[in-house]
Amino acid sequence: MGELTVRFIKQGTGPKQGAPINIALIDKRDVEASGKSLEDVIHMVAKVVGGPVGINVFDMDAVTTTSDGLVVEGAIITMAAGDIGKVHKEFGILHMEEMEVTHELIKEEPHLVQWEKYYKGKKLFRGPDPNKKLIPVHNVVMTGKAVNNNSATEMMNAVTMEEILLPILGQLQIMKDEPIVFGLTGEVISVGIGMTVAEKYGRVFPTRQFRAGDTAHGSGEYAKTLKANIPCIVAPKSVLAGYIIQALDAGMIPGLHIGCSPAVLAVANAKGAKIALDKITEKAKIELKSVGVDVDHMKPAVSLMTNKEIIEKADDIIPGVVDPVLISSSNIVTKLTLSI
User: Its domain of life (predicted)?
Assistant: First the structure.
């Protein structure tokens, strides 16, 4: 008989109303070691939890991209939703599609130069193949009250209508047993998550709809309110700064190759990196200005900072998250050991 470790966050944990459903994170390596199929493990976790639960399975040896085009180590490969001990047989499990990174793909999606420079040879996962899912438009799974959306980066309760934002870097911190930041999403991140890059089989969009420099929201000043009042689990800003610096050092230009989120623009400006201001659309400018980032009047930093200085002072440089609390992930995560 084997064992399976599940990183578990109980419903209600965190600020405001907390996590709207239970959250279970699983390492693919543990699934393989158990000798069970991935589907069997997901059903087992749903049964043990009993209540509404979002289930994410990770390949920590693979890579993925953030919404604004940063390539990061560790990827969600399967998402699921369960309730009352069951997983919906049609809408409860969805697998992310492995992307073959070719010269053609890098040409079409230049932010993948980061993969070639830092992660060549590693598998790349983002969202699912739209031809392999039943629910149109959204990359989502549902069972009962549990909803796991946008390729496993936000979870919702279909009855209470409560929600939590789970950006990939925050989840990866939990998988590494490293510190996380718990807080309210706020206006800056509400705007920032709309500053996407164009990707095939992306986490949110199946096709290349919104290029770097544009906004997927397109809702003017209203964009800052979209997720402002919901809780979020994110990585410390020093971690985010490190990945942004890595992208900039690979030659990525905000607004041209990677998204123009407030975080990316703040780090690029502090570093003195080039920003394609002329590529940022008017729609994106309106949303950015609504949270204090006036692209048309952006001034270069008075004194440029080194990479080390930016990481050390990331909390002062990068805006976003309301009432943030830096805690050990072990403070909110219980490691469940299931007998297989």
Answer: Bacteria
